Each structure stands twice: as C-alpha cells, then as structure tokens.
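Posting for a labmate who doesn't have an account.
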Amino acid sequence: MPWESNGGGGGRNNGGPWGQAPGGGGGPRRPGGGTPNLEDILNRGRDRFQGGFQGGVPGGRWAIVGGVVALLAFWGLNSIYTVNPQEVGVELRFGQPKDELSMPGLHFLFWPVETVERVVITENQTVIGTGTGGGNRAGNREGLMLSGDQNIVDVRFSVLWAVSNPSEYLFNVRDPEAMVRAAGESAMREIVGRRPAQDIFRDDRAGIALEVRDITQAILDSYQLGVRVSQISIENAAPPSEVADAFNEVQRAEQDEDRLQEEARQYANTLLGDARGQAAQLREDAAAYANRVVQEATGEAERFNAVFAEYVNAPAVTRKRLFLETMEQVLGSSEKVLVESGAGNGVVPYLPLPELRSRSTTTSTTPSGSGN
C-alpha cells in the first residue's frame, strides 16, 4: 500500500504516522508484527459491531427496543390529530377523501396510509374594489365598472361566504378564495352593466346586491367549489376622481330637476284640487236645481190634479173660476181698460187715472221738500 512506505527507502518506518510511536509507544500493530493499515481498522470495527448484535450483547438489544419504541411514538404522533372548534377534518385514504367528516375533537387514523386535511368553516369576507374614487391613482382597477348608461363607477363591495362542502373546497379548485373573488367581480360587472349608474349609487343597491349574490352562487356551483355565498354588501360606490366634479354637477342638475318637478306637481295638484272643488259645487248646484224643478213640477201636477177633481164635480163653476183667475193675473198689471162690445159703441175715452195718481203724488212730495 502507498501509505505503508511513508519513510522513504524500502524499510519500515518505526517512527512514521502508521508505525510505532517514538519512544516505544504502544500503537496498533498487525498480526505479523507490523503496524495495521486503514482497512484493518475498518474491518475490526465492523466485526465488533456485528458481534454486538449476534453475540447477544445487552447494549445491542436495548438499542433495538429503543428504536422500535421511537418508531411507535413517531407513528402515534402522526396517527392522532385534533380538530379545532371552528374546523372540520377531511380524512384521506391513499389520497382519496372519505365521505364522513371529522368534527371538532380528538381523532385517530392509520398513518401514513391515511392523512387529514383541515378546513375552517367560519364565514369569510372577500373585499373587492376600492370604492373611493381613487382606483386609477392606486393602480387598482378591479372596482372600476361600466354602467348601463355608459358611466364609469368605482364600486367597493364584500362577498361573505362559508365552506359548505369541505371535500369539494379542498380538491376541486386550486385557489378557492381567488375563485370567489373572480366570481363576485364578474357577477357585479354583469349587473352594473345592465343598470343605470343611479341604481348602484343610491336607488337600488339592495336589489343589485341580491342579483349579484344569486349569480355568484350559480358560478361557484358550476365549478363545484363547495362554497355558500350568504351576502353581498355594497360598501361604497362613487365616480372616478377624474370625473368626480362633472358628476357632481350632473347630480346637482338632477336634484334641481327633481325639485322643479316636485314644485310643478304641487302646483298641478293645487289647481286640480280647486277644479275638482268647483266641479263638485256645480254638481251640487245642478242636483239642487234639478230637485227643485222636479219638486215644483210635482207640486204643479198635484195642484192640477186637485183642480181637475173639482172640475169634474162642477165643470162650469170651475171653468169660470179658472178664467177669472187667469184674467186677473194677465190684466192685473195692465193700464188699459177693455170694454165689451155690447156695453157701448166700442172703446170710450176714460180718464188716465194712473197718470193722475202719479202726478198727485209728485205734487204732494215737492212742497214738502221745499219747505224743509
């Protein structure tokens, strides 16, 4: 061997690194009297190690027992697991999930054939968008959406969701939370794109939130994500900062329009109320007039019936009485005197008694006034 001739020349080196130590030291020697080489040292150590196991040395037996106990402890630590109160466990056997779930508490499985995955089942919140009008400056454009009336709105909303099927949640989609975010954003963009901007700003936020929740749930169900969306909360909606001033002007103009329309409606209601009152009064007057005319006609008819009954009993007397009453009514205010043809030679002159009466009245009034 090369390391056997370290001293140079062909002889043994009693003081070299593999020979006897200087001064007669007792270093290891070969059976033939020389110093042992490295292979002898390694072989001797291997023989001693094997002899400790085969020859029944007590230290080797306890080493085996200790190794077995350590393996059992390691296996037990991996086979016993705990599920926290807000979690459920999904046990896997050769990578295939079991149907039953592990409820909170202490559980056992046969590791490494079986493993467990834990899922938090409490409600989660995924916030989407900025909703502050500064999405462009912050570099976050996920909240900028185009409305149905061609306006750009910046929406900030939250998706509240919880795991309903842990097996589907763990193994059907690689990143479930990113999937929830993408589905919520897609649903919001779809609904906002159908509606005018005023609906998302103030008019119909509740209706938009319900529609977004239904569409988001339908998308997640199509991917079998195992997630239940409980609520969509629209936290803020505003125009982008670049057009905020113009949008505010439009809002003020719309408010003025609403105010003027409200004043016009009030004025119209006032006129309409007056007209309805006048119409009601006219209807009442017409009804009263009709009632009066009917009552008078009824009275006249009853009087006629009464006269007719008397006429039936005494026609000549009644006829003469009616004639005299009628002539009295017709000629009562007349200033002419009619003389029958048989009473004289036609119409004779007569004194104008009414004129004389009026003149005498005037004469008697004038002196009394001058005496005063």
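Reply:
Got it, the structure tokens are right above this. The domain at 124-246 is CATH 3.30.479.30 (Tetrahydropterin Synthase; Chain A).
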